[in-house]
Amino acid sequence: MTNTRRTILLTLLALLSIFGKGQTPLVDSLEKSIYRAAGEDQKLAAIIALCNEYKSLHRDTLDLYAYLAHDLAQKSANSRLKDQAELVLAYDYLRWGWRDSVLATVNPLIKESKLKDPADRDLYFKASRLKAMTYATHGDYKESLAILYQIVSLAETHKDNLTLAENFNSLASVALARGLPAEAFTWLTRAMSLAASDPAIDAAIYVNMGEACHQSGKTDSANYYIGKGISLFRQTGILSNLALALQRQSNILIDAHQLDQAEAALKEMVDIRKQLGDGDMIQDENLSLINFYIQTGQVEKAIKFCTTLLKSGDLRTADPASGGTTYANSINIRLGYFEALAKCYKLTGQTDLYRQTLEEIIVAKDSSYQFNSARAIAELQTKYEVQRKENTIIQQQLDITRKNNRFNILIGIAFFIAVISILLFTGYRKREKIRLTAMLEKKKNEAEENERKRIAADLHDNLGAHAASIVSNLDLIELSTAGLSTSTAMQELRNNSLAIVSQLNDTIWALKKDALSLTTLSDRIKIFIQRIQYSYPSVNIGVNEEIEDDVMLSPSHALHLFRIVQEAINNALRHSKAQEIVVGISSREHQWEISITDNGTGIQPQTHTGNGLANMRERADKSGWKIFWLRREPTGTIVQIRS
């Protein structure tokens, strides 16, 4: 589109928005929304929404907006908007009666990929139905039915009830065009059951129901249904369909000899067609007007009108003075006009022209039969019914498969629940067992703790008291009068008594506590070193602490660790001839280590057979610790205990 053309279109649109008014309130509202659109895609979507009301737009207005939508779509990256713009252009071609252009535009839109995509499925069905109705409008019922049957079959597969209702009604329209009201009733009944109170679809169904009743000779029912259809079309504002309904109402009224009312309906129909820019109208409406002329005695006027309508030629080369005449090139359209003209010639007694027109009718019918063979259409209907039954069987098989799958899923769920229940029950029993064990362990620990405290109390009150009494009594004995051997024995007895008291104090210290920290243990080791330091004045004994995380120990573990350290210090003092002993205590990240390092002569733990080392190993093993005896360079021994 050139910049000049785009500028002209935009100018026209601006003028329309200022001075013009839509054919209906909905059209007027949609037209205004175009000028409120912010971006190009939003404007394109607004134009498409307006053009979708093509049955209520003036033909020139539709043409203007359809081409503008087409041009805007070329610049858009939105593929759905592009497709919708093409469909809008097809609507425009339909209003001008350009069958080939409609077909060329919708065919690319009818792709299997669009049917499979739920977002584009509506576009597929709309384009397909437009193609079918284009064929039907030009009397090619065979092609139209083939497409409609396919749409119905696919819509049934996808359970699209509104599409089914719309296309069942379209099948009824084709049946009525072929003069088969009984078949039309069948389709309309099915359409009514699926319309879901959509006013536009309901209105179309009522109008077709009225025509079916009219063709069946049921004038009262025809008037009832056509009246309901017209009322709904007035509400929805679908002007083109309202004009068609008024044309059918006029036919019913003419047959009922209510000519004044028929004339009023025809006049309103003509006014609507002029409002829409469809001055030449469509075949059914033209035939209604011809029939009205005949009924009111204006036969010559009917003959002149028929002769005008039977013009054929190429619209593109038509004389502009013709006023936009639509030529009747289709055999099926011409046939209706020939039959009306023959009726007029017969009424006026023009025998030669009547005979000549009958010959034209025979030729037209022969040509029409080639397009719309009753056998071919019957085959299409049979094919549809077979396909429908096959679809029903497939649907039943699918339902059975779904039920089986549901059953299998339920079995699987039941099995899963059973497995989970067993696992939960097993876990519950395990947790209960652990809880019971923990409870028993707790009671055991409480019992042990009570027993430990009782033993500590007994040791303190009984053995401790007796040992302290022995030491005290020994201090009262006068050793100066005793002999040397007696003094030595008494001194040894005193030392042993003091050792017993010391050991009892250490044991009671450990047993009285619920838990002991590494720092507390370090303090006890320092007290022990102070107690023995007087007996070894030549040996320097020290403690190095690097406690970052103060680890808690049970009383038994604390006592075992204290005894191991105590034994290691005593061994160094008795056997190593060391001048220096260092106790190192470290703890970080909940891991502790105690080392006893001396600078003595060193020992060979693998060849030592004393009970002291064995006791140290046994205490470490019971507590789950590691103990090592390492050689210190240049001389000495390192004893390491690690958690």
Commentary on this structure:
- By secondary structure, the protein is α+β, with helices and mostly antiparallel strands.
- Among the domains are: 1-109, no CATH class; 300-313 and 325-372, no CATH class; 401-512, no CATH class; 515-642, Histidine kinase-like ATPase, C-terminal domain (Heat Shock Protein 90, 2-Layer Sandwich), CATH 3.30.565.10.
- It is 73% helix and 6% strand.
- It has 24 helices and 7 strands.
- It has helices spanning 3-19, 25-36, 40-51, 59-75, 79-96, 99-106, 112-116, 121-137, 141-157, 161-177, 181-194, 199-215, 219-236, 239-255, 259-276, 283-295, 299-309, 331-348, 351-371, 374-476, 484-511, 518-533, 555-575, 611-623; strands spanning 516-517, 540-547, 552-553, 580-588, 591-598, 626-631, 637-642.
- The strands form 2 sheets. Strands 2-4-5-7-6 form a 5-stranded mixed β-sheet, with helices on one face. The chain has a two-stranded antiparallel ribbon with strand order 1-3.
- Strand 4 (580-588) and strand 5 form a beta hairpin.
- The protein is rod-shaped and about 180 Å long.
- The two termini are 89 Å apart.
- Residues 1-22 and 315-324 have low confidence and may be disordered.
Helix content: over 70%
Q: Briefly note the CATH topology name of one domain.
A: Heat Shock Protein 90
**Biggest sheet record:** 5 strands, mixed
Quote the beta fraction.
Answer: 5-15%
Structural class: alpha+beta
Shape: rod-shaped
Mean pLDDT: 80
Q: Any idea what the radius of gyration is?
A: 56 Å
Corresponding CATH superfamily of one domain: Histidine kinase-like ATPase, C-terminal domain
Beta strands, count: 7
Per CATH, the class of one domain reads Alpha Beta
